[in-house]
UniProtKB/TrEMBL annotation:
It comes from the Bacteria. Keywords: DNA-binding, Transcription, Transcription regulation. GO terms for molecular function: DNA-binding transcription factor activity; transcription cis-regulatory region binding. This is AraC family transcriptional regulator. SUPFAM superfamilies: Homeodomain-like. Residues 243-341 form the HTH araC/xylS-type domain. InterPro entries: AraC-type_N (IPR032687), Homeodomain-like_sf (IPR009057), HTH_AraC (IPR018060), Tscrpt_reg_AraC-type_HTH (IPR020449). GO terms for cellular component: cytosol. PANTHER family: HTH-TYPE TRANSCRIPTIONAL REGULATOR GADX, HTH-TYPE TRANSCRIPTIONAL REGULATOR VQSM.
Amino acid sequence: MRNKPQKHWTTIGYYKPVFDYLRTVGQSNEPALKLLGLRESDLSNPDLRIDNGQFGQLFELAEQQCNDPHIGLHAGLTMQVQHVGIVGLLAMSCQYAREVFELHARYQSLVGNGFVTRYHIDDQTICMEAELAEGHRPLSRHEYEYNLAGWYRLKSLLIGGQNVFERIELPYERSDPPSLIETLITAPVSYGHKAIRAYIPRSEYDAKLLGTDPQIKQILEVQAQKRLLELRGEQADTDEELAQVRRLIAEKLAYGLASLEAIAASLDISVRTLQRRLDQRNTSFTQVVDEVRRELAHKYIHNNELSLLEIAMMLGFAEQSSFNRAFKRWFGNSPGAYRQGGD
């Protein structure tokens, strides 16, 4: 399993605050739209994917237009929840802050695949770490500050807290004069690190959020899972190595042999190497197994010659009850009701 370079992209919705900010300061969007090869109407399609190679030039152009050496920071601080699409809607439906963190980790690739985001939790802090995906071009200071300011803004809107971040680590050197980041984001900042890291008090993990609707969350999460699986399918179509992992899992599920160790052995690589390469693709072995099971379940459920117990066994579930729970999570209904409804 050789590691091939990946194409990196982000949805235009995530960068719409740049265009909104240009309007706010009296600048035209036409030069920026022309640079990205877009029309004004494209800004209304939040799922439209743009090659990440273009965003460095976007911030250079915006800086020149506005004569603003802190354009990334200023634009990022105007971000709204709707700019991250269905992930933002899901976050607004959460009851507790921990659900927001979990959703971000699970569905980050619906917004873009340029960063690999992880959460590290201990007794004192929650650390959100965002590292550039392997093979991604280096980012400019504006791009890093835009991302950090956007996260700062979204955390303020969704979770609040007296101090949004306790401290921040940035993957570039401190400029002279220093960036406004040290005054606009009220947290100690250090430089020269491997990744962006933002630290949040551990006490906020279980904070209860206001105005939530668990029923809407369930509906939205079914849609988010569907989009994520479609995205993984697209990736598998163009990523020979990922497709090979998926094929091996599908072949071994019914025999109870689709373990991480078994797949790594079939690929003649170590478990750690397989985990790392999947991590670089913004996924995990558990996620890939879940996606393959879902696709096969959708195929098998339409074959009336197969009983539900047989389908559960073919998918490698030890008990039919486990299959039933997974099926409802995937499709929003029990397998029996789904089959009767003809969905």
